[in-house]
Amino acid sequence: MSAAIGLRRAGWTPVIVERAPERRTWGYYIFMFQEGLQAAADLGIADHLHTRNPEWRPGGNSWTVDRRGRRKPALGLLDAPSGLASVLRSDIEAALWQGIAGDGAEDAVEVRFATTPVEITEGAGGVQVLLEDAGAGKRYREDFDLVVGADGMRSSVRRMVFGPDEDHLVNWKAMICAFQLKEQVPSYEASDSILVARPKRAVWVFGLADHAPCAWLTYRTEDVPDRFAGSAIEQLRAVFAGMDDNPVVRHVLDSLEEAPDHVFDSIHQVKMPRWSTARVVLVGDAAWCMNTYSAMGSSSSLRGGAALGVALQEHPDDLAAALDAYETGLRPYITRQQRSARVKQQRFVPSSRPVEVLGSVVLELIRKVVHRRMTAEYTASSAPAAPSGTGR
Fold first, then answer.
1. What does the alpha-carbon distance between residue 257 and residue 232 come to, in Å, rounded to a whole number?
2. How far is CA 3 from CA 221, 269, 276, in A?
3. I need a labelling partner for 359 at 20 to 30 A (CA). Which of 3, 111, 148, 250 fits?
4. pLDDT block averages, 10 residues each, the chain of length 392
5. Phi and psi at residue 364, to the nearest 5°
6. Does the predicted TM-score (pTM) go above 0.85?
């Protein structure tokens, strides 16, 4: 949807083709970095984006739990001075939906639900797309000036135009399950965040200001295809056996059994030498999926949609120049973020016991410095104002 907003702002008339039969309003936890918040502002949706950062309190809102079940203050992901925001996927969807709705029915972007591209044929003057409407049970062809593939890590547009997934997906040999908890882990504050990490396995609980927490279960594995055999909960109970005596892990696993929705998937990055052909361009995870560990997926997708719109606006009569400008301007940023994801992965799920221990020591040193500063700022902001005038 960010690309549709960008195109419309550049004077185009976009049509969104959506595989799902209705809006995807369910949401899991997402980080929004400053780049994503700026892109939201550039797209005109910042005022519609609901953020859910808990109010920081002395002592912090984040905890780690050691092997003896003892909780210790931790450096929270929101403690970084980088303008990070906590949102749900549904918050971003709602803001983008407001953006494509425009000022009324005449200004709204057309959305075709339960519709997928089946065949894409590029020509000198445009692109012909064979579309399948699952609701009506029919196929039809339609001509467009440009096709934007923004259909995720396993993009069907990318497969049809750029080749099979195995040419572009880099397997990180890891899995993740993300979902919303019905309620917080017992004995923790409603907005607390919690980490229980062991070598190659980790459970995260992300506290929110005005919503029940969300959870991640993530682990490293050499057998990614085998992990899709059987149900997610069966796989996860087997993987986290030996950790489930921890109340946090047990609560998360039990909650997953009752969760109405969840995401359970393998971790990959998408690497491509180029994101466009003459009249087909990829945006977001379809082009450069950074993966969950980067924590930059949503921010980069919003930035990509905004950047594509700007490039088309600056080159209104030269599509090739616009697509070149889009990629030239964005690729260095994407490359940096993809590289940094390897380092971030160790934060989310340490690869070994030495890495776990070293990470804990380093993060504890940083936490003491950061929390000392944040406590001072909190105290200063909470102090009563000095009386005006002079006392006699």
1. 9
2. 35, 21, 14
3. 250
4. 96 96 91 94 96 87 92 88 85 96 79 97 95 96 98 97 97 96 96 96 96 97 84 94 94 96 95 98 98 94 98 97 98 97 95 94 90 82 50 34
5. -70, -40
6. yes
